[in-house]
Amino acid sequence: MIIDSHLHLPVDFPDFPSKKAALLNELKRNGVDRGIVIADSELESVIGSVRDCAELFEGSDIISIIAGISPNFEYDSQLGYCRELLERKCIAGLKVYTGHEELYCTDSCLAPVYDLAAEYNVPVLFHSGWDNAHYAAPKLLKELADSRPHNVFVYCHCYYPKLDECFEVLGKCHNVYFDTSSVADDEKLLPQIKSALEKAIHEMPRRFIFGSDFGSCLQSVHLSLAESLDISDEERELFMHGNAERVYKLRR
């Protein structure tokens, strides 16, 4: 079984129904059984707001939704809407777009997001890596994770391309999980990315979650990287679906 835990609606389609069809077709073409679609934090977005994505995939047995949320966009009403969705079990977590927005993961204004996630026992996801990496640098996320042991955090992109630093700093933060979306972006970096992943998965097999960042990245390339990893069958099962099922509470 394969779960792609980091998907976005693709932008190159005229409306949400066609974006949905393209995403589902991509899963089918690549043999992916289930997926998690991450909504934008903005209220109007080509990849869909929380409301857009929740309504588009309502009742789906193969797609779950993560709600993007930001203090910059009708914060109180969005927190209320996310609470409603969590109460109805319509979303599987919350995401903060650290780096895409000028938000540090330790900013006090994000406390209501972390409190809401802890109350409903769902993870909070963070964007990490690339040019604005300082907003959710590993040392900051470690500070946050240590201060909030009852929260579960998912570190998307593993501080790409500095995966070794990511795993070294966050290795002992057992409430932090690693989402490997986007890490196959640059073919030239694949040997070092593969080596870092193999070592870390051997050491922390229950903390890695497969994702592709489809919508921005090629799902097939990330599947190829995953297939090439020299890891055990048990580690592969956890990586490709088991950890996602546990962290996001996905029902079979």
Task: Outline the structure in words.
The chain has one domain: TIM Barrel (Alpha-Beta Barrel). It is α/β, with parallel strands linked by helices. It contains 9 helices and 8 strands. The chain is globular. Helix content is 40%, strand content 13%.
> What CATH first level would be assigned?
Alpha Beta
Basic shape: globular
What gyration radius follows from the Cα positions, in whole Å?
Answer: 17 Å
Give the distance, in angstroms, between the N- and C-terminal Cα atoms: 11 Å
Helix/strand/pairing class, anyone? alpha/beta
N-to-C series of helices and strands: EHEHEHEHEHEHEHEHH
Determine the fraction of residues in helical runs and give it as a percent range. 40-55%
The CATH superfamily turns out to be Metal-dependent hydrolases
Q: How do the strands of the widest beta sheet line up side by side?
A: 1-2-3-4-5-6-7-8
Number of structural domains: 1
**Second rung of CATH, namely the architecture:** Alpha-Beta Barrel
What would a concise description of this structure say?
It contains 9 helices and 8 strands. By secondary structure, the chain is an alpha/beta fold.
SSE map:
Elements: E1 3-7, H1 16-29, E2 34-38, H2 50-56, E3 63-68, H3 75-87, E4 93-96, H4 111-120, E5 124-127, H5 138-147, E6 153-156, H6 163-170, E7 176-179, H7 190-203, E8 208-209, H8 219-228, H9 233-247
Parallel strand pairs: 1-2, 2-3, 3-4, 4-5, 5-6, 6-7, 7-8
Helix pairs in contact: 3-4, 5-6
Pfam families: Amidohydro_2
InterPro entries: Amidohydro-rel, Metal_Hydrolase
GO molecular function, one term: hydrolase activity
